[in-house]
Give the backbone structure.
Amino acid sequence: MLHSTQATQTSSKNIHQWLDEYAASHQNPINKAIHWVCVPVIFFTVMALLWSIPTPAFFESVPFLNFGSSAMLLALILYARLSLTMAVGMLIYCLIIGVLIQWWIQLALLPLWLFATILFVLAWIGQFIGHHIEGKKPSFFNDLQFLLIGPAWVMAFLLRKWKISF
């Protein structure tokens, strides 16, 4: 559990401070490229794994109400606290994830949980290879909140490329 001074310190960071701190351990071009692929895949797989958890029967009548969509909502609240523009970008990404998950469920090639687990493991192997190349440990080793900053880092790159302020 965070001490009150730690909680105040982390909650007072703005989006740019979070992204700058995250970027410090992502300077090597190969590591950046690996993260550009693996971070969105990991975000997708975590949401897919949560989506796969059976929901209580009384929620079954509400489409898309599950543990994955609930986690997306919580993540979007965090992103909105940091930047509304970032939250809109991440909302679009979350909607794409929802569509991809539903598409995969319809395909029924592999159970969603199994597909997501395989991708999750492969993406994390990629992440650790990237950090080995970088020579720096992953940011989340210092603060677990960086697990949600990684996807924002990718989104920030896209927003900058599209000349959208956040």
Notes: The two ends are 30 Å apart (CA to CA). DSSP finds seven helices and no strands in the chain.
